[in-house]
Specification:
The complex is a heterodimer of chains A (671) and B (147). Chain A is an alpha+beta fold and 671 residues long. Chain A is 61% helix and 12% strand. The longest helix of chain A has 32 residues, at 201-232. Classes of the chains: A alpha+beta (671), B alpha+beta (147). At the A-B interface, helix 12, strand 1, helix 13, strand 2 and strand 8 of A face helix 1, strand 1 and helix 3 of B.
Chain lengths: 671, 147
Amino acid sequence: MIAEIGQFALLLALIIAAAQVVVPMVGAARTDATLMAFGSRMAVAQAALLAAAFAALTYGFVVSDFSVSVVFQNSHSLKPMLYKVSGVWGNHEGSMLMWVLILAIFGAAVAVFGRNLPPTLKARVLSVQAMIGVAFLAFIVFTSNPFMRLDPAPFDGTGLNPLLQDPGLAFHPPLLYLGYVGFSMAFSFAVAALIEGRVDAAWGRWVRPWTLAAWVFLTGGIALGSWWAYYELGWGGWWFWDPVENASFMPWLFGTALLHSSIVVEKRDSLKSWTILLAILTFSMSLLGTFLVRSGVLTSVHAFASDPARGIFILIILLVTVGGALSLFAWRAPTIRGGGLFAPVSREGALVLNNLLLTLACATVLLGTLYPLILEAASGGASRVSVGPPYFNATFAPIMVPLVAAIAIGPLLAWKRGNLKAATVKLRIAGVAAGGAIVITFIAVPGGPILAPFAMGLAAWLAAGAMVEWGSRIKLFSAPVAESWRRLTGLPRAASGMTVAHLGLAIMIAGITGASAWRTELITTLAIGESAQAQNYSLTLQAVENGRGPNYNFERGTFLLTDRDGDTLLMYPERRFFPVAGQTTTEAAIKTTLLADLYAVIGESRSAQDAGQKWTVRFFINPMVPWLWLGAFVMVGGGLLSLSDRRHRVGAPRRKQRPVPGVSGAPAPAE
Amino acid sequence: MKRKHQRLLLVLGSLGLVGAGAALVLTAVEDSLVFFYTPADLAERNITDDRLFRLGGLVEEGSVQQSGSTILFRVTDFTGTVPVSFNGVLPDLFREGQGVVAEGTLGTDGTFTAKQVLAKHDETYMPKEVAEALKNSGRWQNGAATQ
């Protein structure tokens, strides 16, 4: 019964979404306030109905209603409750339902919080948002119905893939989707503005918080997914340049560019056409990502069972959405008036450079990700290739180096016309920090890759540069402490957010450098009582015991790790066997210290004739990996700090006064 | 600075960057393409160079052996069979009779030395290339391999 209610709510949501496409659009064209107001109500109703459908599916999972096909295939009565709930989105149908639910929630958020938007723009945004909603709701209803019943109902389910039974992965898809789908807001605003034929600074101010929120979610989602792959797959790696990973990374790159270019639109009323284009491209990447993940056209280590017919449906949605938006752009963009002029060396110029480099980086990732498809299509299926990490490392890293170097300089330049010499003088400390980091790394880790110390220097340059900029805003050391304090408390949170996010990036670069340059890996087989050496550590297998978890059996190794000073540490990696799924998972034992992760994995055991039972053991020393997660965490923190800025808060500032293009109401940032 | 100067600078700047990017891509893509072959392909094409490639097929039943930390098994598509050696921890879903994709090089003795054996998160998942290879050799029925 509950499932039928969910089904009904889903169909009703589709119908309402279809109406929401037409009614507000017509209302905006006729400037009919009643019709436009209807748009908001429908957006809220659509979100409520989808929430009901989602709740119905969740109920099915919680009470283990195996007459629902999706529940049967992805759940089991013995599963812990957390994974029964996360099983809702741990499968294709449920995750698509979550996709449209989030889309509808964003739409409803505009309806509810967008009171200060011009009514026609708001109506058009809701209409565009509903167009995307209709496409994906039709996709769900016609190809991936989550409420399909089974008759007769099976006695028990087949269980969720054990790899997904993990807290990291329980929360990874919702965050990722909030990010992916969050960029639909920027897209809807861009298309609505094109229809409206007007883009001004106010538009930039409305788009920015939505983009920022989506960016924060996506950053968190990608980091969480990477962290999960790191500790759950037991390979000791955290990023594989796999198509599915790239699918989430490409919207991030474009989204980051969009975040920065929308600042120029807001503050300087410039780069408007480009920002609109970027908003369209960012969401296109989200759709492309959904297509790549859901269609399985690319062989991915993260791939789940997938159905090509569904892929074609998403591909059509992708082509219509992107094609339509780009055609509209080609038609209307020439009517967008160019804004303020700026010199190449200026804040705008730096943000343009940021955009160019990020776009270029995204283009190379896109090319590498799609190349196997292109080649296979071109050769008629005869040549099948994959593009490996070396390609991405060789193209991505050289593009990031100038970008990171420029990040420290950009914020120190004034709008319109900057003084590069003054900025470099201010950055002397950062130069010293970078040099110091290079020398220290060189001495501390001799014999590593020659480029690694320079990458550390770059991280130090960025971190120190961010601090210099922050210090100069509050006149740290150059003014009395009281004055600095006054400036600090008056500093817009968006400005502090930027500093924090850039610091996070610096920490992350240090982490990436360490993790890729100085990793130590040991693979061996050990019998009980045997030892192996890895760098400064001696690893001894002391015991192996068997036991039972809630829905699995495990084999747990006890390892004694002794370092050169005689300090010891016990590690307990596990192998878990899930009888329901007939599948084994690896639980790595990870000991995190400030500078490195010690990472131990116990593999299968084999009986050798001469030595009795032996276990395959894998041991990694992963330097700096904790910094990666810390960096991502700090970046998210910076985004949240910026998002909490009063000026971003939707509906809070200046409800009566109409924003004047090119004039930002906030105090101009210190220059 | 006039508007057209600003535009010209932007266009020149982007062209320069795109050129540099294209150069990067072209140099990188040459060295990092990894081709995919099935055992049948290997028999046909007589591959001898030491380039990295991916080998896909099913793990032959009863072929998995361990010697020290090295694991030996055979990959088959029922047309050809290739012995594989791998020094490492196999992914959790590695099993006899299941699909597998290994990345590595082919030695002169015909043994494939795998640097990496790819794991799939889902045991019902069959790598696309393996599924196609099985279809080509007529061992694919009702969406699953027959033994």
